[in-house]
Every structure is written in structure tokens, then in C-alpha cells.
């Protein structure tokens, strides 16, 4: 598993400035997203290489509209979303999966005018069932905007402190319908997927290991590894290598590209 090359000094300074401005705009997801897109749209020589963005940009340049995205843990489709910019820019088709009903409603609203988008208000698990799901519920926006991204089947992976504040009173438990990846794709009659994005708060490896890669053969898979153990990451790497993928990682995420 390789690491991204070091950024040039000026890129690091530019990135630090962008991060500070980003924090100031954290309560305004739309403005936050515009700032992030503007920064990432700068030439790589100026801002430094961005592993996921640059690979998606190259895919958009080579494929145009001919891309289908499966995104598990789509959240609201705006804040800290690695693929939403390209879905909108290139009019990619997508199946967006989000289990929390209130966030799912926002997700569908944010993509209301985008053609070719399907939605699934379910969670992805290892069997078709209903099971408890834990998440940060902040309807009055008392917490940083990213708090809405925190949700998991695993209670201990739902953080209890955000920006120094005890947020245990914000943690909610709901029962969510669950599907396996195979059941999800069958329900939506999807036979081909080009990009898979998984952000599942520590459950990423279990979702990844169930993907029917022999049949759908995505050219890119993006998953969050920062909450996985070394053993879980190694299992994911072995699984992906066996299916012909090369892996690259940054601090938070892993990018697997089909050889």
C-alpha cells in the first residue's frame, strides 16, 4: 500500500490557508463545498497532488458522462463529499445510499435537479435485515457541520466529544433496513458500476469485502480506512489485490484503481 508523495512547500502553505478558511465556513455547507471545489480546481503544481480528486478528474476527462457511481454513506451530498462535484459537473449517473431519514431527505433535495440519480434510504450490511444504527442527531445545527457524517452500526465508533463538547446527548439509535450490496444492486437493476465510494464510520471493510467485484468491476474504489485496524486494512488490501486493484492511501482514505 503506497503513500501519496510529499507536497511542495508552497502547496502545504496554500493547503493550510484553505483549511483555516474552510473551518470558518464549516457551518455553511454550500459555501464550504464551493471553496473546496475552487481550491481543488487549481493546477496540481500549485496546490499539490490530491489523490482522490485528481483521479476522479482524470476519469471525468476520459469518460465524460459515461460513469456510474455507487456511494455508500452519501450523507447530504454536499459536505465533505469526494464525488458530488464530478456527479454534477459531468452528469454522472449514481445510486446514493444513506440510512438516516432526515439526512436522506436533505440528500434527495440537494440532487433534486440532477438527472440519472437513484436513492436508497437503507444501510449496507452482511445480510438483508433490520438492525440498530447509531448517529449524531443535530437538527438545530449546534455542532460543526461534519457531525452529521458520524453514524455507525458500532456504537463505540460514534464519537462522544466534538470540538471539546460532550455530545452523548446527541447520539440517537434508530432501526434501519439493511441490504447486502448484491441485493441493493439487484433491487435497482444495476449491472455495471464504475466508481464505488464507501464512508461507513468503521464498517467500511465489511461492506468492501462483500462487493461483487467479479461482476461489476469498478475502475475505482474509494473507502475510508482511518477507523480500521491494521488487520482490517491488510484484509482489504489483500482482497483488492486479488481482484486486480492497486492501492494508494492518504491519512484518511484509500484509493484502489483497477490495474
Would you mind describing this structure in some detail?
It is a single chain. This protein has helices at 9-24, 29-40, 44-47, 51-63, 84-90, 101-110, 181-187, 204-208, 213-216, 230-242; strands at 2-3, 68-72, 93-97, 117-120, 123-124, 129-136, 151-152, 161-162, 165-166, 171-179, 195-198, 220-224, 245-249, 253-258. By secondary structure, the protein is α/β, with parallel strands linked by helices. The protein has a single domain (50-258), classed as 3-Layer(aba) Sandwich (Rossmann fold), CATH 3.40.50.150. The strands form 3 sheets. Strands 1-13-14-12-11-2-3-4 form an 8-stranded mixed β-sheet. Strands 5-10-6-7 form a 4-stranded mixed β-sheet. It has a two-stranded antiparallel ribbon with strand order 8-9. Helix 1 runs antiparallel to helix 2 (29-40). The two termini are 14 Å apart.
Amino acid at each position: 500500500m503506497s503513500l501519496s508523495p510529499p507536497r511542495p512547500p508552497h502547496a502545504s502553505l496554500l493547503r493550510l490557508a484553505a483549511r483555516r478558511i474552510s473551518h470558518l465556513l464549516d457551518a455553511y455547507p454550500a459555501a464550504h463545498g464551493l471553496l473546496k471545489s475552487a481550491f481543488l480546481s487549481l493546477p496540481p503544481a500549485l496546490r499539490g497532488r490530491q489523490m482522490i480528486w485528481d483521479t476522479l478528474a482524470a476519469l471525468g476527462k476520459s469518460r465524460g458522462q459515461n460513469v456510474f457511481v455507487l456511494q455508500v454513506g452519501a450523507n447530504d451530498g454536499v459536505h465533505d463529499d469526494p464525488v458530488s462535484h464530478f456527479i454534477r459537473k459531468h452528469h454522472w449517473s449514481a445510486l446514493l445510499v444513506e440510512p438516516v431519514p432526515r439526512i436522506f431527505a436533505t440528500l434527495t433535495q440537494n440532487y433534486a435537479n440532477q438527472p440519472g440519480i437513484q436513492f436508497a434510504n437503507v444501510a449496507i450490511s452482511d445480510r438483508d435485515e433490520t438492525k440498530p444504527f447509531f448517529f449524531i442527531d443535530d437538527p438545530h445545527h449546534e455542532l460543526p457541520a461534519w457531525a452529521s457524517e458520524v453514524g455507525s452500526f458500532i456504537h463505540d465508533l460514534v464519537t462522544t466529544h466534538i470540538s471539546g463538547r460532550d455530545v452523548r446527548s446527541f447520539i440517537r439509535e434508530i432501526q434501519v433496513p439493511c441490504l447486502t450490496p448484491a441485493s441493493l444492486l439487484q433491487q435497482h437493476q444495476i449491472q455495471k458500476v464504475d466508481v464505488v465510494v464507501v464512508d461507513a464510520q468503521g464498517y467500511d471493510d465489511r461492506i468492501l469485502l462483500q462487493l461483487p467485484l467479479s461482476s461489476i468491476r469498478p475502475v475505482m474504489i474509494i473507502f475510508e480506512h482511518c477507523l480500521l485496524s491494521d488487520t482490517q486494512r491488510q484484509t482489504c488490501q489483500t482482497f483488492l489485490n486479488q481482484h486486480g486493484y492497486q492501492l494508494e492511501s492518504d491519512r484518511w482514505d484509500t484509493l484502489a484503481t483497477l490495474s
